[in-house]
Design goal:
Blueprint lengths: L5 E6 L3 H13 L2 E6 L2 H11 L3 E5 L7 H9 L6 E5 L4 H10 L3 E4 L4 H16 L9 E4 L2 E4 L4 E4 L2 E3 L3 H12 L5 E2 H8 L8 H15 L9 E4 L3 E4 L2
Parallel strand pairs: 1-2, 1-3, 3-4, 4-5
Antiparallel strand pairs: 6-7, 7-8, 8-9, 10-12, 11-12
Helix pairs in contact: 2-3, 6-8
Protein name: DNA-binding response regulator
Main location: cytoplasm
Keywords: Cytoplasm, DNA-binding, Phosphoprotein, Transcription, Transcription regulation, Two-component regulatory system
């Protein structure tokens, strides 16, 4: 990891915002690289291997969703989408496309810093020592050592956040994991009441892993309490 707190790639076409983020993040111990369009973002991400990417959706040459799809073709680097779009559908689309978090403009610097730290922490701890190498559940194979998931023999691409949630549930081996426990472990202690995060991410995981997402067999909700993974 470069920089005292990590290396951030900021992608936005607003020069004032890029300058403000560069100054503020460097003052807080981050190394900062910037890009002003989608093509530059993809090229720079491959070149500098950042610890986290802050990505605006409204870019001049291509939509931010296209950049996300391009990144997820080869990288699991945490991505925080930064956008003036407040529509819930845009947030869900961004998360489904591979984003790890979504911050709406205007935003507070302290909030963005907290989310950056949480994203970098998730990315850095995405591959802990496994308790069991492979867990099988129907058509799903969760490779805890290789930090990957197969469904019907095909690899399913998960973001670091999705993997963090799934791994926590799989390691619990059928036991209930509370909402607060998941939020605290994956996002950090300041997010333990953000239960709406979990609903969005569990819905995304079910779309990727379950045969019938509306009637899941493996990723089970215990209403008001938490979640469990059943083989």
């Amino acid at each position: 990891m470069t920089g005292a707190n990590g290396h951030v790639l900021v992608v936005d076409d607003e020069p004032q915002l890029l300058r403000a983020l560069r100054i503020n993040l460097r003052a807080r111990g981050f190394e900062v690289t910037t890009a002003a369009d989608g093509a530059g973002a993809l090229e720079t991400a491959a070149k500098v291997s950042p610890d986290v990417i802050v990505l605006d959706l409204g870019l001049p040459d291509m939509d931010g969703f296209t950049v996300l799809h391009g990144l997820r073709g080869w990288s699991t680097v945490p991505v925080i989408v930064l956008s003036a779009r407040t529509d819930a559908a845009d947030k869900v689309t961004a998360l489904d496309a591979g984003a790890d978090d979504y911050v709406t403009k205007p935003f507070g610097m302290e909030e963005l810093l907290a989310r950056l730290r949480a994203a970098i922490r998730r990315g850095a701890t995405a591959a802990p020592a496994p308790a069991a190498p492979i867990v099988e559940a129907g058509a799903i194979q969760v490779d805890l050592a290789g930090t990957r998931v197969l469904r019907d023999g095909e690899q399913v691409r998960l973001t670091p956040t999705e993997w963090g949630i799934l791994e926590l549930l799989v390691r619990a081996d059928g036991n209930l994991v509370s909402q607060r426990e998941i939020l605290g472990a994956v996002w950090g202690p300041t997010y333990v009441n953000q239960t709406n995060y979990l609903r969005v991410y569990l819905a995304g995981l079910r779309r990727k892993l379950e045969d019938d997402p509306s009637n899941p067999r493996h990723l089970i909700t215990e209403a008001g309490m938490g979640y469990r993974f059943l083989r």
